Amino acid sequence: MGLLFFLALLFGASCAQLTENFYDQTCPRLPNIVRQEVKRAIETDIRAGAKLIRFHFHDCFVQGCDGSVLLEDAPGIDSELNGQGNLGIQGLEIVDAIKAAVESECPGVVSCADVLALAAKQSVDVQGGPSWRVLFGRRDSRTANRTGADELPSPFETLEPLKKKFEAVGLDSTDLVALSGAHTFGRSRCMFFSGRFSNFNGTGQPDPTLDPAYRQELERGCTDGETRVNFDPTTPDTFDKNYYTNLQANRGLLTSDQVLFSTPGADTIEIVNRLGSREGTFFRQFRVSMIKMGNIRPLTGNQGEIRRNCRRVNELGGEAGHDVM
């Protein structure tokens, strides 16, 4: 009873409408279908998992977890993909493949927002990270929010703006540090961190929180701004706690990574040390924070729709998917 009460407090009233068994009757093989497609994608593109979890993150931070990030430009739709925070985001074709496989077996049943939530979980699990029980029942928005996508957390931001953006969606400092741990895999383009190499913030000097040997390694690897570099220089394709040991060694790739550990007096320093102390500690907190993030303002019940094609809204008056509960 105590655990159930804790979970109710943690996830809020909206989560009561999301359930683990939402698709048990209408699409019972959903987890297996998505896992198979995620594994297939990672086999051909090692960055696929990181791409999928980024889509889920960017979806939930803009008007809630509603699949709006996937909508392309159309009459009445100014795509979030055009927003400053989504420039260069990749993997839409991977989402398409997963959705197509789901539609083949369970047509008109599973929302794109739920596909993103489950694909993010499977991506982490397949690459050595923790597993968790995804709650389902999100529905897809018929609108996008380009302005919101312009205000997504930035790789150039210092700690206080990052904390404010997380607080605005109900996430605290622990969630910020735990979810940033997803940068234990994936790549970043050099344009997002090369400003740390010299004349950092107009000082005429490199970023003092960037390890000099690591800086030289990055400079050699960055032939231009489009070059991609591993987030984690130690185990780049494995989901583990090395993100935090990298921060402790001043080897965080982005400004927004390193400020979690290098901002004097910050409450995030202790959290970095705690999550970096044992892999199990990081994994447990990552599970909690991912579930919490996945329940930011979902559309449920009769809100929104079940999109057949994640890139565009259903045609009114046509087959729009059906309710499952």
Q: What would you note in describing this structure?
A:
This protein has helices at 2-11, 30-44, 48-60, 92-105, 112-126, 146-150, 159-168, 173-180, 212-221, 242-248, 255-262, 268-277, 279-293; strands at 187-189, 228-230. By secondary structure, it is mostly helical. It folds into two domains: 15-152, Peroxidase, domain 1; 159-287, Peroxidase, domain 2 (Orthogonal Bundle), CATH 1.10.420.10. Strands 1-2 form a two-stranded antiparallel sheet. α8 (173-180) packs across α12. It is globular. 43% of the residues are buried. The model is unreliable at 1-16 and 318-325 (pLDDT under 50). It catalyses: 2 a phenolic donor + H2O2 = 2 a phenolic radical donor + 2 H2O. It holds the Pfam family peroxidase. Its cofactor is heme b; Ca(2+).
